Amino acid sequence: MTIPAITQKLLAAKQIQGLSFTDLEKILGRDEVWIAALFYRQASASEDEASKLVEALGLGPDVASELTEYPLKGLGPVVPTDPLIYRFYEIMQVYGMPLKEVIQEKFGDGIMSAIDFTMDVEKETDPKGDRVKLTMSGKFLPYKKW
């Protein structure tokens, strides 16, 4: 996967400034996952959000301008090669159809929106090894009949 130049610049500036996505969440008033998506150009910022971000990162207006442009969404190959990202692919291979069945049983024939959507990442401390807790919330969109 090729990482966009702006993403590399944003990540380097974040590291230089000693900031985390949680720190940026407090500055921008947006969720840390959304901010990370912005870094990878999977979201677009308002002028105000872009201005606050580049100020916090010590970057120039050229970066702010690029962050307000509409992004081309979807990164990397169809089958991801990064081990962490591949686990999500693997989860969907194993649990995708079962999840679909359960969602349709509860909601009917439709999909979960990835547009009207939020995601939260939490760390759960466990004596057997820390755990990653993901909470995804997407609006249910029933298929239209015509």
From TrEMBL:
An example molecular function term from Gene Ontology annotations: cyanate hydratase activity
Matches recorded under SUPFAM superfamilies: Cyanase C-terminal domain, lambda repressor-like DNA-binding domains
Lyase recorded as keyword: yes
This protein's UniProt keywords: Lyase
Active site, renumbered: R87, E90, S113
Catalyses which reaction(s): cyanate + hydrogencarbonate + 3 H(+) = NH4(+) + 2 CO2
Top EC category: lyase
The protein's Enzyme Commission number: 4.2.1.104
A Pfam family of this chain: Cyanate_lyase
InterPro entries tied to this protein: Cyanase, Cyanate_lyase_C, Cyanate_lyase_C_sf, Lambda_DNA-bd_dom_sf
Domain Cyanate lyase C-terminal intervals: 74-146
Family: Belongs to the cyanase family.
Function according to Swiss-Prot or TrEMBL: Catalyzes the reaction of cyanate with bicarbonate to produce ammonia and carbon dioxide.
Protein's name according to its UniProt entry: Cyanate hydratase
Gene designation per UniProt: cynS
